[in-house]
Design a protein that fits this description.
Length: 336
């Protein structure tokens, strides 16, 4: 009952926070000039008709010299029409200035087809990074202050101190350009579960997971080292448990109360941090689309993708908090 009330309250606060952030993004983006200039290959009359049909401008008139005059629709009125289309019609707009996507429906024809590559490279990154990071952290904690611990600490410090962009550049230069073990860009294909496509994903996956490996190893070493020095571990050994049994049954479970939520938070940070990595390795995903929307001032695309990343970040907070109660039944979120 306590958990249900807590989750309900957090969902309500999440939706309120999302609405505030989404509103701020809409208002701020609408304060910028309206991009009414036609792109190469576009008809100016069509561009103005689209803007008027989307409710951005009104009273469009074409002068004798070919210039257009119009009135801007009040921002809050635009926002009301936008929310009505999104909520009741599922209409997130059309691409007005995205090169190669102009005139296409943003949700069905642009966003959904680009979602699988973004999700896959982050899933692969976690599948590779979590076992390696946990393994290094456990080894460092069990071999604390020995040479194994020192080597792992040096490795962790190097990965943490180097930004993911620098690591990506090193991977791109050494393994893709010099050694030619991987292609420079991810292959463009809708069949994501073939070996050539997976092979072309690996440089982006390694660039994302190296920083995560360092984070997992650091969290695991710190938490497990503290748990191993607890009095309950001495009590477990005096009851006849071997060292490995005490570590597996008691130390690992108690340390996972902190480690597991950090895994979730690291996954979300990787998902939001894959924007630049996708651009560098030519991943045909949502991250590159987001940057493209910003560069070309496609406001509807910007709003859709901003809402996507905002919702992921807010939902992650709820998932992380709930995971505490799942890992440790003694924790009851929302109880007084």
């Amino acid at each position: 009952m306590y958990m249900f009330k807590y989750v309900s309250k957090r969902l309500g606060l999440m939706l309120l926070t999302f609405f505030i952030i989404f509103t701020m993004c809409f208002v701020l983006i609408k304060l910028l000039p309206i991009p009414t200039t036609a792109l190469p290959g576009q008809d100016q009359d069509v561009v103005m008709n689209i803007m008027e049909a989307r409710g951005w401008i009104t009273n469009v008139q074409k002068g004798e010299n070919g210039t257009y005059t119009y009135d801007r629709v009040p921002i809050m009125l635009q926002y009301g029409m936008y929310l009505k289309r999104v909520i009741f019609e599922g209409d997130f707009g059309i691409a007005t200035r995205l090169p190669g996507y102009t005139g296409k429906m943003l949700w069905e024809e642009v966003f959904i087809p680009k979602l699988p590559p973004t999700i896959l490279i982050n899933i692969y990154s976690s599948l590779i990074g979590v076992p390696i990071g946990l393994g290094l952290g456990i080894l460092a904690a069990l071999k604390k202050n020995k040479w194994q611990d020192q080597v792992i600490n040096i490795f962790i410090i190097l990965l943490i101190s180097l930004p993911s962009v620098i690591l990506a550049l090193l991977i791109l230069y050494v393994f893709c350009f010099k050694l030619r073990w991987f292609p420079l860009n991810m292959l463009t294909s809708n069949d994501y579960f073939t070996w050539p496509v997976f092979h072309s994903m690996l440089p982006a996956v390694f660039s994302l997971c190296l920083g995560s490996v360092a984070g997992y190893a650091r969290y695991t070493r710190a938490e497990l080292s503290e748990v191993l020095t607890g009095e309950f571990m001495l009590l477990a050994r005096t009851k006849g448990l071997t060292k490995s049994q005490a570590i597996y049954r008691h130390a690992m479970r108690n340390s996972m109360v902190v480690i597991f939520p950090s895994i979730l938070s690291e996954f979300i940070s990787v998902l939001s941090g894959s924007l630049i990595i996708e651009k560098m390795f030519g991943v045909n995903g949502v991250g590159g689309l987001y940057l493209l929307a910003i560069e070309n001032q496609d406001y509807d695309a910007f709003m859709l993708l901003s809402g996507f990343y905002t919702l992921i970040g807010l939902a992650a907070g709820i998932v992380i908090d709930i995971s505490y109660g799942i890992i440790d039944p003694r924790i009851r979120m929302g109880a007084k």
